[in-house]
Amino acid sequence: MKRTAFFVSDGTGITAETLGHSMLSQFRGVEFAQITLPYVQSEETTRQAVTRINQTAEADGHKPIVFSTVVNEEHREIIGTCNGLVLDMFAAFVGPLEDELGVRSSLIVGESHAIRDHEAYRIRIDAVHYALDNDDGARTRHYDKADIILVGVSRSGKTPTCLYLALQFGLYAGNYPLTEDDFDDLRLPEALLPHKDKLFGLTIDPDRLAAIRSERKSGSKYASPRQCDMEVRALEALFNKFNIPSINATELSIEEISTRILAKAGLQRRLQ
What's the domain range around 17? Predict the structure, then answer.
């Protein structure tokens, strides 16, 4: 089954996409064509959105699913006239919250993504810079500032996880790749020894690792199943030897990896 889903927003569309993706992911038997319509902020752009939704409904022969986070009440009413199943996030949640809190909502466009807390924004930017500067073992002299240092073999997901930890939680995350040289004697690199309490390991199934590496260097020793199996076995032995906490990231998204690291390492996020 194929259906179309629209994410309609008077801002970036990030909130509508996030909530919509979470709901659509529960319907594995349906293939969704996903269309984001951001910055729907005037009557004209709202009617243009409705026209596009209606055209899609006619072409598909099915009502599109419409996730809306439009704030303006008049614009929401216009969207409600479209030939789609409209899931209005504000109608569903803001009304009950107003009733419970006894306070009217501000209904300000873009409020959820505005830079209101400049200190929090600075923390996020500094954390991202740290992750980039301390990626892949490029620099180790700043590890004393790290909240966590991810270790694992090449292509196990260390870099994107560090960036997510920085962006979402404001954490200073560095990462260091472990190689065959480190596995020979099952020893930690000198640069990591003073920071052993900050280390967290990412491991991955050898078959998955070989597939990922093959996309980069197909046919190489680096991507061979035998090499990947050897590295992963040695990596996990190293984790066991030095009691380094770890998780298997094979079937996990970056979001899941990051939140599990937070829970297992007992880290406190700087950004709420």
Answer: 2-113
